[in-house]
Amino acid sequence: MSSITLTYFDIPGPAEAIRLAFYVGGIPFKDRRVSRQEFAKIKRDLPFAQLPILTVDDEVFPQSAAILRYAGKIGGLYPSDPIAAAKVDAVIDCMFDIQAAIRPSIYETNAQRKLSMRKELSEVTLPLWLQYLERWLERAGTTFFVGEEITICDLVIYTRMKWLRRGVLVGIPDTILRNFRRVRAHSEAVASHPKVDDYYKNGPGKVTGDGSPPIPPSPPHSPLTPITLPSNGD
């Protein structure tokens, strides 16, 4: 079997779904966690000067989405059926769109503007996207987003929803999922999956730092199409 090493910081971030994918899929891997100081030393040698990266034997791969799909494919968490795979990709890309909507507020340095952006996010943008996810689950008629079994898109949504519910983004309440019953039920179903539960009790999740996971400065896939959102009257 190939030697696999995932390198990221000691926080959840975009690497958390990847760690879960390897763990749930039963794929042995080295979970290498580096400090900011270590990252500064290796940054110039990274393919895109970003983390996470995945090292498989002598090959080094960047971009969290590519790494996640690799983990899903070798761990049986990514469908072989093209239609089902496209659905998984769609849900993952939806989450990246949500992250892209949040990102500007993270890097905003003006406190008043930041709070204004977070107000728009919590009252308009996030409820809109959460409603899309709620509707997807309703139409799917299943606990998970694609089929009856857990896939990598479930892990992505779960880890990001967990992040939002931690209340680490000032101005976005930890009750953000209150009105989205199916999305909440999905998070509970993923959390209760035996392998996911074990990951946080006995696996890498047990030692993951509590720092707020950063969102990468650029999307981990092709540029996003701008989205027109309804005005909140502001």
From TrEMBL:
GO biological process terms held by the UniProt record: glutathione metabolic process
Enzyme Commission number(s): 2.5.1.18
Keyword tRNA processing: no
Compositionally biased intervals (Low complexity): 224-234
UniProt-annotated stretches for the region Disordered: 194-234
Top-rank taxon, per record: Eukaryota
InterPro entries membership: Glutathione-S-Trfase_C-like, Glutathione-S-Trfase_C_sf, Glutathione_S-Trfase, Glutathione_S-Trfase_N, GST_C, GST_superfamily, Thioredoxin-like_sf
Domain GST N-terminal: 2-79
Keyword line: Transferase
Cross-referenced CDD domains: GST_C_Sigma_like, GST_N_Sigma_like
Domain GST C-terminal: from-to ranges: 81-218
Alphabetized Pfam families for the sequence: GST_C_3, GST_N
Biased composition (Pro residues): 213-223
Gene Ontology terms for molecular function: glutathione transferase activity
PANTHER family: GLUTATHIONE S-TRANSFERASE
UniProt protein name: Glutathione S-transferase
